[in-house]
Amino acid sequence: MSNKFISITLSCFLLSLLIAAPTGAQIPAGATERAVIPFDFVVRGKTLPAGTYTLRRFEEMPRTLEIENPSAHSHIMFETEPLERRNVTRTDELVFHRYGDTYFLRQIRIAGEEEGLEIATSRAERVLQNQSAKNNMNRQETLAIALN
Question: What is the pTM of this model?
Answer without folding.
Answer: 0.76
